[in-house]
Amino acid sequence: MLEFAGLGTLIRRIWRKPMLLHVLVLGSLVLVGGCATPITHSSDSEANYSYVFSTVDAPKPTIVQSHVERLHRSVLGIFPLAAQYNGDWEFEMLASPAWLAKAKPGFAEVPFASVQPRHVPDWFLPSAENYTAWKMQTTSYPNAHLFVEKNPESQEKVRVFIRRH
After folding, report:
1. Which of 12, 32, 47, 82 is least surrounded by CB atoms within 10 angstroms?
2. How far, in Å, CA of 160 to CA of 147, rounded?
3. pLDDT at residue 4, rounded to an integer
């Protein structure tokens, strides 16, 4: 009973001191909002493809290179929080026309010069001479860009670069 009375006194003191109350509320919000957000960088092509393109119902392309960043937000490092935005990704692939047909909806062709330069891996090298540029119209996610080879060696395997930033 004595401990309970001490708790009541503490609560009354905090309530009477607005600055202390603000500090406690702000501290609680920071705690609930998430602690450190570690980022995982993955170059595992199989895992990356499954993570990003699991809904594409077409023959899987040959993945030449890939990079995926995943954010892991949590409360106290224990309770995971859903992230509104879950990282950037880049892929270089040899894709079939069937895969392109499934992945391309939502993209609109844009002039190559209108694509904003971004920090990308050294292997991500589409050029205006060899690729057409496509942009996913702005959504709640960052922009996605698709670069499709203009004159592929084989019509069955088209070199594609795709990224989300």
Report:
1. 82
2. 6
3. 56
Distances (CA, A) of 152 to 7, 24, 73, 102, 156: 74, 62, 41, 19, 9
Domain ranges (residues) in the chain: 2-33, 39-164
Tokens of 13: 């003191």
Question: Comparing C-alpha atoms, which of 90, 103, 88, 66 is closest to residue 142?
Answer: 88
Confidence class of residue 54 from pLDDT cuts 50, 70 and 90?
confident
pLDDT tier for residue 95 given thresholds of 50, 70 and 90:
very high
- Nearest CA to 160 out of 60, 80, 71 is that of 60
Q: Does the pLDDT at position 75 exceed 70?
A: no
The C-alpha atoms of residue 17 and residue 22 are separated, in whole angstroms, by: 9
Res 111 pLDDT > 50: yes
